[in-house]
Design brief:
It is a single chain. The protein has a domain of about 140 residues: Roll (Nuclear Transport Factor 2, Chain: A). It is built from ten helices and four strands, in the order ααααααααααββββ. Strands 1-2-3-4 form a four-stranded antiparallel beta sheet. It is found in: Mitochondrion. Pfam families: Tim44 (PF04280). It comes from Carpinus fangiana.
Length: about 300
């Protein structure tokens, strides 16, 4: 009798075990199916974050003052599952053309903390009010971030005058390529996201004018650095950073546009016009052979 009861208990336990295993297996399959759709959704959210630029990416507070972009975080998460990376994540076209075997970030794809002029406040308000003390603290932090980024850049052989000469040449080159509509060379001088925006501008311009004359009168009237920022992409390796320098250009330019018959429809190539531009240049400090590229522009209308 006792033996029969023991066999009955064993049978019940074994049956329960099978049901539990089948339930867990079913849950595991459901979970696997759900996970297989995650990268696609994350790619879309990453893209939307990049379109919102600085609003989407918080910076890491600390002595290094670096930022980990959402794209880098996503890639680090999925790097633990080789299958998901190889089947879902796609490398940029440039990386695939070079035969890269893994996803490589060629640019963060956004401007980190875009420069905007600070509203001036009086000496009395700055030093004798609570709001003034808070504003002074914020101003100091902003300046320290720029100082730290420039110091990091100097260790890689940065020279202010050399960079300014290179920036002016790049400024002139990009504007000339825009005027001639040379997209092949333009692609090498700007980041991927910036190229997409400039390509659209060229298409719109060509729909209005058949040909454009653009010329910059040298030397430039003024050039100065407004902001410098570092963007870290690996919290375990602080040497893997991008740097962005925001420059203000004040130049004299000549412009003239023509229709399909060669008639002048806009501008005058004889007149010199004073133009103010604020451009953001970007460079990787960990990719061999990296060079400065235009990654964004800030509208001068935001300036007083």
């Amino acid at each position: 009798m006792a033996l029969r009861r023991l066999q009955t208990l064993r049978t019940l336990y074994w049956t329960a075990g099978i049901r539990e295993s089948s339930y867990l297996l079913g849950s595991s399959r459901s979970y696997s199916n759900a996970i297989s759709h995650v990268p696609e959704l994350n790619q879309r959210s990453i893209s939307s974050c990049l379109n919102n630029a600085h609003k989407a990416f918080p910076f890491t507070r600390g002595s290094m003052m670096t930022l980990r972009s959402t794209m880098a975080a996503e890639l680090l998460i999925f790097s633990n599952d080789t299958r998901l990376v190889t089947t879902q994540a796609k490398a940029p076209p440039q990386a695939r053309q070079m035969g890269a075997l893994k996803v490589s970030m060629l640019s963060p794809g956004f401007i980190y903390e875009p420069y905007a002029p600070r509203e001036p406040i009086s000496f009395w308000k700055r030093w004798f009010t609570r709001s003034g003390w808070k504003r002074t603290k914020e101003d100091i932090i902003l300046e320290l971030k720029s100082a730290y980024a420039i110091n990091k850049l100097r260790k890689s052989g940065y020279s202010k005058q050399t960079f300014y000469n290179e920036a002016v040449n790049r400024y002139k080159e990009i504007n000339t390529l825009m005027a001639t509509g040379d997209k092949t060379l333009l692609r090498k001088a700007v980041t991927e996201r910036m190229y997409s925006a400039l390509k659209t501008e060229i298409k719109q311009r060509e729909s209005m004018w058949s040909k454009v004359h653009w010329e910059m009168v040298e030397p430039v009237v003024k050039i100065r650095t407004l902001r410098a920022r570092l963007i870290g992409v690996d919290r375990n390796d602080l040497s893997k950073v991008f740097i962005q320098l925001t420059l203000e250009f004040l130049t004299k330019q000549k412009f003239e546009a023509y229709d399909s018959k060669g008639s002048v429809v806009a501008g005058d190539k004889v007149k010199e016009v004073l133009v103010r531009d604020v451009w953001v240049f970007e460079k990787s400090l960990f990719h061999p052979g990296a060079y400065w590229r235009l990654c964004g522009r800030i509208s001068p209308q935001k300036f007083p």
